[in-house]
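Continuing the series of single-chain predictions for the mutant panel. This is the parent chain; the variants come on the following pages.
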Amino acid sequence: MKKRFAFIMAWLMFCIPAPDSAGAETVQLRIIATSDLHGKFVPWDYALNEESLSGSAAQLAGAIAAYRTPNTLLVDAGDTIQDNSAEIFLGSGDTHPMVRALNYLGYDVWVTGNHEYNFGIPALKKTIADMEAKTLVGNVYGEDGQPIADGYTILDAGGVRVAVIGMVTPNIIRWDAANLAGCTVTDPLEETRKIIDAVRGQVDVLLGVYHMGIENEYGVPNSGVTDILNACPEFDVMVSSHEHTLIPSMELSGVLVVQNRYMAQTMAVIDLTLENAGGGWKVRDRTAESVDVGRYAPDPGMMEMLSGYDAFARADAERVIGTLEGGALVPENRVGEIPTARVRDTALIDLINRAQMHYSGARVSAAPLTAAGANLYPGAVRKRDIALMYKYPNTLYLLRMNGKQLKRFMEWSARYFNTLRSGDAAVSADPSFADYNYFMFEGVRYLVDLKREPGSRIRDLTWPDGTPVKDTEEFTLAVNNYCAASQLLVPGIICEADDMPVLLEKDVRGDIGGIRELIRDYIVNVKGGVITPECSENWRIVGIE
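Parent structure:
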């Protein structure tokens, strides 16, 4: 009985400090933070047109209800209205489904992400006008010289005065220069410093909600929160975003930092314990945890509210975007355990690589077969069929590399195969090497000799005109974000620390979307809606008939 009474008292102290905080010695404040929801308003993947319960705004409702207390602030760090086909609702005149979802959930603060600028300032202003949460972005000014939104707000949470500052990565001017014509994007550190100086002595807690990753991008100073916090350690908590990397809790310059996965897979729950400092409150303790949103059932009320949007998006996924003529993109599989599209060049991989080269301007492109059965067959091509060609929601990266680095990448990739031995009737795969790490290359010609051991299999590597690819010559490579971030740009995996490729561009043509969306746009706007099985046959496996 005593234990139960103690538990109830502790719960009451945590949940209902607001009315009596003036005379209390401590008070608890909870912050629930989300980001990079990317159009996932209900648990449905419209690229595949199938259920996806890994996370959604409708599931966030249950997760937030489970963790919300009377003394909770709910904030989001942007990239909200784009992806998962949600952009089809922009320009309709209706309130965007993601905005309706955030309004339903009662967010206190919303900060614009970089993808909010993909559709022009009028679309962004419509989003801001429809959003009931306080919109923040302190480093973007419109054509009239006025801020797009305020850079900060001061909220009262149970007697605790919380200043929330919101900024977006300055690299939006790199990705959306046309949409930002006439606008000014300023240094977020300079804007942050001005705000902190302005609110000094007026607040108890300083919370940053930044659509910026941990480190700087493209060498642009102050485009990552590390630079911000090194210069402004006054923050108590920083909600980072943009990179989609799960960071349940870490410290930078003494500041608690969190970051979520994308598409509502996680939410961050931050708890602050504040003690009475005589006329104000001082943060005494900070903790944070990541909550798996996929564990929660969709909220029936939100599902009903968004049912019309859901029906429209499902129908849009079935929309015919083109025609395939002249046969399937991949011939029938003829090798037992390995799909045909991994043992010979096919029109499927060539189409993916050509789309990547078209939008990136890269001289060389690399693409994997993302599913063993990936293919397209003659007839109408629907919007959702592109996911049959490319399974994953990867984005496209552009790297600068030299011939030596390319050869290392190709040799690393060719480890997928086992070495051919005398008497082998067919090629086989090494089960310890992930099949999605086997890449096929366009823009060069080459042989893969499986009688050779791993590390020495790539032969006769030339440019299409037959000129050998020299170790020292530099060029650009288009490749998916997963391979770039987890292998090519990590020292010691493919290349050594003193000889690394250079990242030139993240999320190439992010205004269109990821690789699946680029392929779709390529079919519609470059190929005029008609594709045929075109194969360059620029590579082949040798060492076996």
